[in-house]
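Let us work through a complete example step by step.
Step 1: write down the sequence.
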Amino acid sequence: MTPVLPVTLPILADETVTSFTSRLAAENGSPCVTDFCRDIGLDWNGIINGKSDALAALARFSGMALDTLQANSIQLVKQGNYLVRSQEVNRALLCRTRVRVCPECIEGDLRDRGRYGSARRASWQLNTIRNCEYHGIPLVELPREKYSADSYDFCVLVDRHIDFVRSQGIPNAPRTNSRLERYIVGRLNNVRKYRWLDHRPLYVVARTCEMLGVLLLFGKAVKVSECSEHQLWEAGEVGFDALTKGPNGLIDSLQNFRRADEDGGSSFGADLGPFYRWLTVVSGQPAYAPVADIVSRYVFENYPVQKGGEILGRTCKERLLYPRDLAGRHLRLKPHIFELALRELEFGSTNAETGKLEFPRYIASHDLPRIKSEAKNLVLECRAREILRVTERMFHGLVRERLITPQGRLSEQQSAVFREGDYRTPGRSSNGKLGG
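Step 2: predict the structure and record it as tokens.
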């Protein structure tokens, strides 16, 4: 394509179209890109939002291929959502008027292409990218402009703030790019590696990794709003490591935060802290549905949610767990019989420190029938004597002779408990008296 402008230049492989247009304007002697576009009839707002007709006009003036400009544009596809190099991002992930640069990249641009040769890389416009993909050093945020439109005139903006950029210095020991940052840059270049993550929009991956990482790294009491940029960078790394394992990695991570106390009730909100609070905000968005589905299912399977209860907009179709005390009341069992039934069925485990038998906080619904069946066969000594129609003295004699074996005692002070099959002995006559 033959260019119309007297001075043309190529767009860089990872440069945004707005940055290219800014350099084009400067090389053709225009003081600002807005005036440049107005003077030659280009739709600057259309270029900013990646509109096809605006890019086609830019292609005619610059001589660049239209498909190249489209590939390097940031396209507004629907309110609040954009495409960056074919990857869907939302407004929260995309920083358009917040301009960040790599000081070392900028110095290289100015050496290679002169005063107005600085180019804005696409990855610098994604909030989750906090380090330069080439040099591994933290990106530097430029001072905010009075008018947001001026933030897109990139090479002029850098020229205005070059002393500020240089004052930030270049770290002697750059930090390594996080795996999440490398993954995002890979997605921008159409590299796929992790199946479950690869099927999610890029903004869902980025934010889910960060929010899960905040929980895993800083605990359930932390507030995301109080996390620094560096802490979010660290959190993204931890969350990404978990989510590379797909849904199982997410579930395994959440399992670590189940409370071990015995205060009863549904505590998933407290257990999952900032991650769950964030999900309550975004779970209604279709893109986050796979994450919300996994977490709601995890809650249904690990906390006592009532049938019909809603978690993240998902309805509990069947109650799967009961708090232990509520399970006993649901079965209409006396507490001591319910506890002994749990003991007989080996629901308890011995605390290594105290040596005491401890029972699980929750009882699964599918275990209730066998608990009830076990409880039906258990009676206290007084009831066993009534069934056998013998005196207390005679009953104790049967126990001493091991004709009847107690199943256990609820405590040292309480009566022994017996199983029905143990006290219906063969020596009992048809009239209820013991045979000789």
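Step 3: interpret the result. The mean pLDDT is 87.
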